[in-house]
Amino acid sequence: MKKILFLLCSSMLLLHSFVFAQVTIEGNGKKFVLPSGEYKLTIGTETDAGSKPIVDLTSPLVDCGCGQADFATSVRHKGGSTYEVSFDACNVNPLRWAVKKKETNPLFGLSFSVRREFIPQSGTFEIDLSSYEEGEYELEITSPKCKGRALTTFRIGSDPPQINDSNITVNNEGVHVGAFQKAKVVYFNYDDTGEKLDAINLVASRSSDGKIYLSDEGKAHHRAYYSINGSVNRLNASELKNYPIEANTWIHLVKFVTEVENVNTDAWRTSTQYNGQRNLKYAASYECTFYVEGLNAPRTPYTLPLWNADPLRNGLNLSTGTGFKLNSKQYGSESIPAESADRLKQISWAQGADKYQLLYANEVQNLTSALGKGITDLSDSELDRAADMLANMSTSKYFAVDFEPHNPAADEWRWNFNAPNFREVMKKLSQKVYDRSGKYFYSWIGKGNRFAFRGKQFELDGPANDSWGNEQLDTYIALHENPSEIQGIDIATPVLTQVGFGYSSTVIGGDASKGSQWVAPQLWYLRALDVLNVQTLITPKDEKLLLFIWPFEDKPSDAKRTPMTRMKLGEGHIKQVDNRVQYPHNLVRDAILTYLCNPKHQYTQYWIFGESYDPYDLLYWSKINGQLSCHSQNAGGFYVTEYSGSNNPPCPQSNKGYIGKDALSVSAMIQAHEWFAKEGIQDVCDGTQVRDFDISFDSFTRSVAIYNPVFRADTGEFARSYKYNQPWIQVWKNPKTGKRVLLYQDPFADAFEQGYFTATVNGQKITKQVTGNNLLAIVL
Q: Cα(90)–Cα(515) distance, rounded to whole angstroms?
């Protein structure tokens, strides 16, 4: 125990933090005994914040930042004397900000000329600095309720030169001279057809040192939010100006425009499915993929699609790769790329009996008609026959039933999801199929795996896979810290569990605990990986995991479509009107590789995609010069594209569908498996690998700021990454060879931001450089 004697001076304000084992404070007839911890001592008063207690040592101070004390902030001139402040913190409540002239030599922190305190409602606020002279100033943000601060420099008055068109001069030959030059933006399937979108106008500029900067000169009528390769700027997601990017690499961008006050908590109000028509809020999505031409041609050892300024008719461009062989994993799709069987074999694409298969309503109708009963009405012996019939219907080792009948009222009895015994029937049927044929079977639609933890019931199914849910994040973190307390495990299908991602929104997913931070672009990713870890904890040792993906926004049903797929075609052009927002292909690749490192993973299935490399096939379901195609007429008016031109092309007959931007995600899937095979990762992660918890995550750097992560050696790395806006780290060890695979990723870094991290694995200190929010995977 320690006693502290304070001399109090009424004319001075003193602010400091102390760390003690135990503190006893006595004075004025009062006595305080405080446990060990870090405390903030306030002595005196602050005239602009109201009277304060002489001593305020009532509780330990939490970190102001998200997992660390200090945090980042920025200041942007909004107009006149108004400046917008953005900050990246979790516990500044109330927020106290102060401004001072940069050249002032402060004494005891009292030189700040402006000081205010308020309760923040979002990650941005405005300040009025009228009557202040031109010059360099510093902004400091603190809070009496937390430890740490943010400090940044900004300018009042004329701004220094920026990277924009005014910095570019053109000589008589039309050649750019001076510090910056326009760089060419090459879009994927987005041609200049004369139809201008006012809301988005991407401009790239190359500086004299060769660096590329991206800006959006489009004029949206409401606030915009930007995601680049799944990354959201931590300080200001609403502006895209002079954003540093790399040349010669595909970049995925989403611009979401909405009138809601808080995009995180209220974006659901833009959907009629979630909100109804009353008080429906405006929203629009602009999604595209592009690259900026660099001085050198791109070089990559992996399969990347369409490295061509004219990205039509090139398909997956698989001929550029050298091929690879998977030892124990498999992947594929219901669709087959327009490639030869030999070429698909060279890239280990599952074919024939190795190909995953879905059985649909027609197969279920044939099955139940032959049985004379619905699947939930069968006796145990009749289930044996059903198991044999199902196994014979599929040529694949892995298959499922996706029963979505055209007339549910008339046919739901055949595969009745709502029957009280449906779950038990599926358990028996799955086990019987495996026991009698060695095949893995499950019902694609149905309830997920269930378990209990500390009195709460959980089911990993549907919406439960999209987010952690209200106030559930801390419970999941506790679950990872105490897996022995998981009880009441009820596996929906023995021998095989489906995991994966897709369908859910990457734009309007929200979380009230995150304030105004736009979390949707990262929420789906970290939640999907956390579900993978939970499924690994609760499923039996021999249970296999099948990764099923379709990386497009399908929920809500009226999710905003992007208008940024349009191409020149013949004497006219065609645009896609039913054009779902796609998941960032770099995160699709990274997620798949993370699944591949899990020993339970066996198969990766990409649902379907267009099999044609010819955009002419877009005319199959189309409105051609205002008239429905013959196929759209026969389908009751259904169409997904509109063609305008001087000619009237006939209906195509292939019905294979143009691959379109699926080429990006399918290539990402191929690349993930190629990465897994070529870099020696599959030699470590051969099915015998185990998680290695002999690890500490020591620090990480973003740009020049160093942070200490909140770390614990368990399976909660993805949940903590989301909660604390920090990177995650994972290590797998092969027990036979002792080799390890280390995975590291910072989902909250800017897309091309440079950083470092330091970790200790098996007593060895490791420091690595990383770029942006891309996954790092190395064999130790």
A: 9
